Amino acid sequence: MVNHPLAATRLTAMREKNTEPGSFRAALHELTTMLVYEAARAFPVERYPIDTPVAPTEGIRLANPPLLVPVLRAGLGMADSALALLPESSMGFVGLARDEETFQPRAYLESLPADLSGIPVLVLDPMLATGGSLEHCCRLLAERGCTDITVICVLAAPEGIARLERSGLPLRLVTASIDDQLNDKMYIVPGLGDAGDRQFGGM
Ligand code: URA
Predict the structure, then answer these.
(1) Packing angle of the helix pair 76-85, 21-39 (nearest 10 deg)
(2) Domain segments of the chain: what residues?
(3) Residues paired with 188 in a beta bridge
(4) Rounded to two decimals, what is the model's pTM?
(5) For a disulfide at 131, which of 71, 104, 160, 165, Cβ 3.0-4.6 Å?
């Protein structure tokens, strides 16, 4: 959990129902920067020789920059700020829809490297609600050999956290808030509504 006054003010702007899409997107960008910054604390670094204008010294670089994977569509609003903070990263994309017959999540887009062994992945999705889609997304990554997944989300419901814990997948979660519960329409309560509609307008 990222517990910081500046994260809390951005989250408040996102929760407030009268916040316009432009301001909502700006708050999501800034909050994503903070969440990715915290997630990156655990990243291994390596030292290498550099020269300042004055003298040789030692520099630091990420030993193994992560692949960033925004989950379409709501995760798109997190992509730019994550990539700005991790310019050495590359980006894949996963698009998930609900199968109309089975009601299970189904990937309509999997733009990912075939082999993810040895590559840490940051999954970007603002809302962890039931956990069904995020579990599906993380399984796709694990099937490609990924053993190091960090899910970055703005809000998490206890139900979704429990599901990811039960999944046995190699993941950790970074979030700005664990909210109370899901309602009967599977919205997070108190939540912020539909994160896609709030960013891009209702369809
Ligand atoms: N997805 C959203 O965008 N909002 C919720 O509250 C739950 C899932």
Answers:
(1) 50
(2) 5-48+58-200
(3) 182
(4) 0.96
(5) 160
